[in-house]
Write a sequence for this structure.
């Protein structure tokens, strides 16, 4: 499903060049739950952003179902991302002025997948947020915020979910709940790539990848 | 989710930011409305004040002695009365308030007076204005202050002027000039008294070249000369210059102030828009990650700017008009009643210009917003 070939990313800073990723090659099949582990600054988020078609590599290619993402135009990549990839972030990234339902529907506007509202409501019910759909993010607990973000990620029925430290701001109970929802997506045939520090999170993964200073350990 | 719905929700969420931006647009629009209303009023006021100084344009017969005219204010030759009709029939000309007169010095009851026959004032097509001078009805006379005093003439008397009976309609207040020595009657009566039917000695007028560059009298001579070749044109420069300078000054004051106000309000809106963009960086990053393209993100910010402009236009129009109504009478004492009315055309203009202005001020912040690298934003967060 996903083939990463010799991926590298170099940032230029005032202090000089920083290699965030250096020659990562990887093959990920559909239905896998990949945990990307490694200390802070090891390149986990950079790797996720490249797979998300949001960060052009300095070197190498990202092939998603035989399509080279960075050969596409920016607009085509944006559309591709909307239809195929869901995101879950550590900081939730919910829009503060929209309620729970609207935050979920935000993902549907671009993908135009149709019947978004019914699916959003159904998804929120399944995630235990049926009673919260009219609430603003500021009125939710951390666990509820992350479940809202998962509902948003699932709305367009993506093939891949990229999760960047999704349990980083959650207590163990909420973290486990979130991971179970992600696992359920994977069991339905979806693919998950999750950057994480947590050992508990790694327990849900079907494969763990260790990154050290931008390289596969 | 519709972008429009997001715009309204965001505005409601960040009310203070929106209200401050609307305030900036309101200030700019209020100033514009006040400027146009006031400039119109001030032009009217100035014109009225200047008109009270009298006619500044004199058309006399070609064979009249200019020296005599300049020394006495009276032309020694006559010309056909029909000339005034010819001038009044012209379109797109640079003069107005045409007044045909017939004036002659004569002895009356042993005193040397100036008999002045006045035709009703006429204006060219499309330039109808209130007459600058009074209208003397046939069979009546307006008697100058000095004559009335020396000859004990009173309002209501019937006087005989060379065999023509005229009822004194008014004895004029002291003017301190030639007017104190005039007996003013209708043109017809003066022509009858002087035995000059269908003749006049001059046409008085006011030129409308206050904002023209160059010497207006050259323009006027060319213009009037082509219509009435048998005449000569004299302009009282001191009056013309005073009028032009006064009107120009008002225009200059606003021309200097306006750009500063517009610029300050533009910067104000721009700074608020930049702050708004900074506050919304994570949201912009998220939208880009979800696949929203440049146009959609731009619409979020420019749509908000559009609303800022529309609200600012409405509030600014109301504020500017209210300020005009409240403070106008103190500034424009003479024409206050005439000028103090809401100008609906300004409202339409404000509704078009204010949103464009707000969007222009928000353009740079919007470009900043769409160029944010979503990967960087989301990674930083």
């Amino acid at each position: 499903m996903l083939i990463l070939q010799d991926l590298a990313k170099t940032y230029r800073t005032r202090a000089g060049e920083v290699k965030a990723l250096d020659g990562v090659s990887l093959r990920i099949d559909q239905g896998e739950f990949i945990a990307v582990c490694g200390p802070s600054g090891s390149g986990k988020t950079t790797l996720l952003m490249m797979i998300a078609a949001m960060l052009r590599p300095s070197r190498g290619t990202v092939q998603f179902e035989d399509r080279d993402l960075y050969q596409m135009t920016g607009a085509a990549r944006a559309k591709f991302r909307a239809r195929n990839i869901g995101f879950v972030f550590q900081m939730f990234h919910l829009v503060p002025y929209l309620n729970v339902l609207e935050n979920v529907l935000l993902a549907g506007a671009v993908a135009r997948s149709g019947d978004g509202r019914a699916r959003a409501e159904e998804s929120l019910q399944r995630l235990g947020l049926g009673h919260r759909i009219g609430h603003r993010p500021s009125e939710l607990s951390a666990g509820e915020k992350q479940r809202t973000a998962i509902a948003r990620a699932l709305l367009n029925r993506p093939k891949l979910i990229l999760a960047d430290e999704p349990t980083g701001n959650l207590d163990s109970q909420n973290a486990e709940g979130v991971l179970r929802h992600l696992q359920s997506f994977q069991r339905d045939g979806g693919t998950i790539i999750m950057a994480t520090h947590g050992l508990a999170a790694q327990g849900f993964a079907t494969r763990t990848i260790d990154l050290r200073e931008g390289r596969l350990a | 989710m519709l972008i429009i719905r997001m715009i309204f929700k965001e505005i409601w969420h960040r009310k203070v930011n929106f209200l401050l931006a609307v305030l900036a647009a309101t200030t700019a629009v209020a100033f514009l409305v006040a400027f146009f209303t006031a400039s119109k009023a001030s032009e009217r006021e100035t014109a009225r004040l200047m008109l009270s100084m009298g006619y500044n344009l004199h058309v006399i017969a070609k064979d009249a002695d200019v020296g005599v005219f300049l020394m006495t204010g009276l032309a020694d030759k006559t010309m056909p009365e029909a000339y005034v009709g010819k001038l009044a029939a012209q379109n797109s000309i640079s003069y107005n308030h045409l007044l045909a007169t017939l004036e002659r010095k004569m002895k009356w009851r042993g005193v040397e007076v100036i008999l002045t026959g006045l035709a009703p004032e006429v204006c060219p097509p499309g330039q109808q204005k209130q007459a600058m001078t009074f209208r003397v009805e046939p069979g009546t006379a307006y008697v100058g202050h000095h004559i009335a005093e020396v000859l004990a003439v009173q309002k209501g008397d019937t006087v005989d002027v060379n065999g023509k009976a005229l009822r004194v309609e008014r004895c004029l207040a002291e003017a301190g000039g030639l007017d104190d020595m005039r007996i003013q009657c209708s043109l017809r009566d003066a022509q009858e008294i002087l035995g000059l039917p269908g003749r006049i000695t001059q046409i008085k007028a006011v030129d409308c070249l206050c904002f023209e560059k160059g010497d207006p009298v050259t323009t006027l001579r060319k213009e009037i000369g082509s219509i009435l070749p048998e005449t000569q044109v004299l302009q009282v420069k001191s009056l013309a210059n005073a009028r032009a300078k006064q009107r120009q000054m008002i225009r200059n004051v606003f021309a200097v102030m306006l750009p500063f106000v517009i610029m300050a309000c533009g910067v104000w809106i721009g700074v608020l828009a930049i702050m708004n963009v900074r506050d919304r960086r994570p949201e912009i990053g998220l939208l880009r990650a979800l696949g929203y393209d440049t146009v959609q993100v731009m619409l979020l910010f420019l749509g908000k700017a559009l609303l800022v402009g529309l609200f600012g236009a409405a509030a600014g129009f109301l504020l500017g008009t209210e300020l005009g109504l409240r403070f106008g009478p103190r500034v424009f004492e003479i024409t206050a009643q005439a000028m103090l009315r809401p100008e609906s055309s300004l409202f339409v203009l404000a509704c078009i210009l204010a949103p464009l202005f707000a969007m222009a001020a928000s353009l740079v912040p919007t470009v900043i917003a769409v160029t944010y690298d979503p990967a960087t934003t989301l990674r930083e967060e």
